[in-house]
């Protein structure tokens, strides 16, 4: 009972912020220059309820409640985003839904190609046919106002169909969404319930990863709070995308890596095992980022408990890399063992295309260099574009983009000044080198996607800013010494000004900015 009372006390303390939330909610649609005034009561009610709940459960006046505030913000406002986001309108959402549906049906392995799965799963077919402005050019999007969607019933998939053709193992990254779909099917026979539950479980999974990362971090908490609540992480995690796993794992990696650089506790075999496992899991969502696993190997030897621990780290990290390689090569392994039929081995054509691409780049070095340099120069622009326009397929609001950019830059400066660890210079060089390798690997991987790149194109245009999330997370480490030097601050610097007040300021900035993004999207997606 005392906890409930504390929540009411907190809500009372935040009454001014609640008033600000209401004013923003009522005025935010006027940031959109392409939409006439409208008042969608259902969505306004959903967002207003989310706003009250985050102010009810958060602790915005306690600078030590960083993890709690992150979870509350992501969970409640993220769920509102899940309802606001039209059906199939997240990034590659129908493909992600196709994978999650199969796991929810209890399938360990992929049962058919995405195209053939339309003939196996009535639910997948029904969702695929729903109207969408950006995808099909319809006059409306599918959301809670579309009655035909609300009337659809869950229909079991027919895995005895002639279209079944068992392939690779299903990606574990979709398990949270699959659990949500199954839960939705248990509580209702309506398809829209299971669809939204799949989204919500994925979002809550991300919120838990952010909470865990901040909880275990000793020296990077407020930085993880800001980076974990960048608006685009909430919007992409509010759908079926496995990027929620990517973002959460990168934050966990930063939490552990910055802990390694502390002076009070040596790196043990157990800590390296946890770190390696975290990095290994990246193979299920963004495989090139697995290379972050080697970062501890560049730390000074005295950071480790013993020389034996340091040498064991090579073996542990190498082993995790080996298992990651096995996952990447599962199609070839399963085919060799006879577990995949020739019908399914359309991936062999992908292997020949890979060899063809490699050969083309090798025999046209000047072209390959031009593609790489143009793509590299595009990285800052793509990162800022994701920061400025976080909502997938939403027509841009220039006012919102300006707010997002200014607040983001301000927050990055503040959290950089609040980072106090001394990072060895060798680590900066190692991180930079690994980033370069990862970036090249990402470019090469995306160049194999014929939807966004064909041989002869001048750059790899499909590498979106969200892929470079790992770069953003390391930014405070790089900026901290430079900014403190420019401002002529001591190692502690602004802490003497009042670190707690800065943390409270960060809470408010992040909550308000995230709220504005949700409110604008509420009207923009209709």
From TrEMBL:
Keywords linked to the UniProt accession: Membrane, Transmembrane, Transmembrane helix
Pfam families: DUF2142 (PF09913)
Claim: Ribosomal protein is one of the keywords in the record: no
Residue ranges crossing the lipid bilayer per the database entry: 15-32, 38-58, 70-87, 193-213, 244-261, 273-298, 310-328, 402-420, 426-446, 467-483, 503-525
Alphabetized InterPro entries for the sequence: DUF2142_membrane (IPR018674)
UniProt superkingdom: Bacteria
Keyword field contains Heme: no
Protein name: DUF2142 domain-containing protein
């Amino acid at each position: 009972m005392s906890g409930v009372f504390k929540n009411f006390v907190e809500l009372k303390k935040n009454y001014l912020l609640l008033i600000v939330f209401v004013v923003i909610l009522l005025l935010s649609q006027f940031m959109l220059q392409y939409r006439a005034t409208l008042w969608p009561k259902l969505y306004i009610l959903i967002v207003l309820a989310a706003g009250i709940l985050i102010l009810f459960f958060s602790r915005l006046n306690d600078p030590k409640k960083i993890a709690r505030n992150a979870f509350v913000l992501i969970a409640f406002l993220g769920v509102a985003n899940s309802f606001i986001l039209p059906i199939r309108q997240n990034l590659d959402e129908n493909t992600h839904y196709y994978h999650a549906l199969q796991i929810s049906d209890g399938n360990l392995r992929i049962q058919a190609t995405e195209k053939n799965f339309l003939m196996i799963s009535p639910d997948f077919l029904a969702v695929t046919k729903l109207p969408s402005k950006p995808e099909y050019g319809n006059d409306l999007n599918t959301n809670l106002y579309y009655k035909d969607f609300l009337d659809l019933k869950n229909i079991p998939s027919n895995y005895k169909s002639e279209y079944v053709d068992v392939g690779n193992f299903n990606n574990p990254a979709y398990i949270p969404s699959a659990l949500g779909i199954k839960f939705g099917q248990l509580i209702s026979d309506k398809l829209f319930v299971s669809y939204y539950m799949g989204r919500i479980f994925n979002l809550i999974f991300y919120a838990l990863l952010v909470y865990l990362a901040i909880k275990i971090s000793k020296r990077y908490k407020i930085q993880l709070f800001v980076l974990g609540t960048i608006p685009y992480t909430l919007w992409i995690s509010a759908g079926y995308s496995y990027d929620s796993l990517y973002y959460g794992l990168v934050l966990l990696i930063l939490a552990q890596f910055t802990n390694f650089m502390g002076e009070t506790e040596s790196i043990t075999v157990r800590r390296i095992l946890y770190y390696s496992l975290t990095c290994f899991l990246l193979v299920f969502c963004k495989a090139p980022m697995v290379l972050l696993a080697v970062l501890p190997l560049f730390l000074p030897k005295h950071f480790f408990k013993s020389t034996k621990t340091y040498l064991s780290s090579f073996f542990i990290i190498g082993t995790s890399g080996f298992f990651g390689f096995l996952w990447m090569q599962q199609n070839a392994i399963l085919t060799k063992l006879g577990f995949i039929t020739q019908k399914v081995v359309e991936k062999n054509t992908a292997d020949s295309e890979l060899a063809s691409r490699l050969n083309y780049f090798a025999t046209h070095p000047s072209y390959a260099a031009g593609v790489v340099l143009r793509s590299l120069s595009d990285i800052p622009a793509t990162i800022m574009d994701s920061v400025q326009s976080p909502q997938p397929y939403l027509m841009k609001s220039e006012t919102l983009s300006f707010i997002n950019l200014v607040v983001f830059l301000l927050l990055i400066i503040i959290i950089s000044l609040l980072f106090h660890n001394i990072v060895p210079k060798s680590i900066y060089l190692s991180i930079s080198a690994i980033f370069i390798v990862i970036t090249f690997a990402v470019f090469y991987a995306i160049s194999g996607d014929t939807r966004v790149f064909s041989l002869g194109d001048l750059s790899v245009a499909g590498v979106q800013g969200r892929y470079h999330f790992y770069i953003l997370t390391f930014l405070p480490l790089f900026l901290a010494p430079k900014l403190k030097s420019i401002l002529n601050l001591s190692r502690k610097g602004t802490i003497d000004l009042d670190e707690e007040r800065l943390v409270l300021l960060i809470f408010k900035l992040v909550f308000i900015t995230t709220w504005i993004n949700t409110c604008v999207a509420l009207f923009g997606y209709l």
